[in-house]
Design goal:
Elements (H helix, E strand, L loop, with lengths): L7 E8 L3 E3 L23 H4 L6 H6 L5 E5 H4 L23 E5 L7 E2 L5 E5 L3 H12 L4 E5 L1 H9 L5 E7 L7 E2 L8 E9 L4 E8 L1
Parallel strand pairs: 1-7, 1-8, 3-4, 3-7, 4-6
Antiparallel strand pairs: 2-9, 5-6, 8-11, 10-11
Length: 206
């Protein structure tokens, strides 16, 4: 298997009280009780309403050689794959690289337009990371989320760099970053404030 020299990073938007989504997530409201219509529009307003002032962070989002996401981020289908759900991002997802989806239910790889192929991993986070590293070569692997998936990788000591986009609203409950994660030693390497978000980058120290 190819040994990657790239980093393992995570990149996630959270509320000021640490939530990446609210309670009550459904197909119609994928971000649940998020203070709006459930689409995550307020959480991600920094991307959609003020993209020019956040161009560097937006451009960096999809530059990894491979990606990992949890099944809850991939879509609302639970249990066996009883329909051909191919993610929230349409026929040409923005990743343009292999994406490894954590699931308990096997499924054949799903190629999409633009170079994205979804691979479904049933044997855990370490296996998904090994496959993503091999696919990325010398590129980075980005663990996209959601927060529950990132928490698993943080708890296992598998994240090198943590990129947080903290937005000025609170959700009060939901899916929270760092839930169940042991204490971490972090080195702040970058911070930048914009009108709708504060961007923070940390190295996760051993």
């Amino acid at each position: 298997m190819t040994t990657s020299t790239g980093r393992v990073v995570c990149d996630i938007t959270i509320s000021a009280d640490g939530y990446s989504a609210g309670l009550g997530q459904t197909e119609e409201r994928p971000f649940g009780d998020d203070g709006g219509d459930g689409s995550g529009e307020q959480l991600h307003a920094w991307m959609f309403h003020t993209p020019d002032e956040n161009r560097a962070e937006i451009d960096r989002l999809n530059t990894a050689g491979a990606f990992i996401m949890g099944r809850n981020m991939f879509g609302p289908v639970r249990g066996e794959w009883d329909r051909q759900w191919n993610g929230w991002w349409g026929g040409d997802p923005p990743f343009h690289a292999p994406v490894f989806v954590l699931t308990h239910h096997p499924r054949e790889p799903q190629p999409m337009d633009g170079g994205t192929t979804y691979h479904f991993v049933t044997d855990g986070i370490a296996s998904a990371l090994a496959r993503a590293r091999a696919a990325a070569g010398d590129g980075d692997v980005t663990v996209l989320g959601g927060a529950t998936t990132i928490n698993q990788y943080l708890a296992a000591g598998l994240i090198d760099e943590l990129r947080l986009h903290i937005v000025p609203l609170t959700l009060g409950a939901g899916t929270r970053l760092f839930e169940g994660v042991p204490p971490l030693k972090l080195e702040q390497v970058a911070s930048r404030s914009a009108s709708r978000v504060t961007h923070l980058t940390y190295h996760v120290l051993p």
